[in-house]
Design goal:
GO molecular function: heme binding; iron ion binding; monooxygenase activity; oxidoreductase activity, acting on paired donors, with incorporation or reduction of molecular oxygen
Organism: Rhizophagus irregularis (strain DAOM 181602 / DAOM 197198 / MUCL 43194) (Arbuscular mycorrhizal fungus)
Strand content: under 5%
Protein name: Cytochrome P450
Radius of gyration: 18 Å
């Protein structure tokens, strides 16, 4: 049903996919992404601080975290 996707591959298919994905997680590539992580994190921090300053004691973080993750991935 789901085929040999990234999540469900086994054996040789898994090894091939892992080899293809490995360069994306090399130290040099991750190091280049740090400024993006910092930028998105600071925006997220500001949004949460605004919620707190407005007197909200119960903050639903799900939409904020989802949008931050999509910003970082994009």
């Amino acid at each position: 049903l789901l085929g040999d996707s990234l999540l469900f591959a086994e054996g040789d298919d898994h090894k091939i996919q892992r080899k293809m994905m490995n360069p994306a997680f090399a130290y040099s590539n991750i190091k280049e992404m740090v400024p993006i992580f910092i930028h998105v994190s600071s925006i997220l921090k500001g949004l949460i601080e605004n919620e707190i300053n407005q007197g909200n004691s119960n903050i639903n973080l799900t939409p904020y975290i989802s949008k931050a993750a999509l910003d970082i991935i994009g």
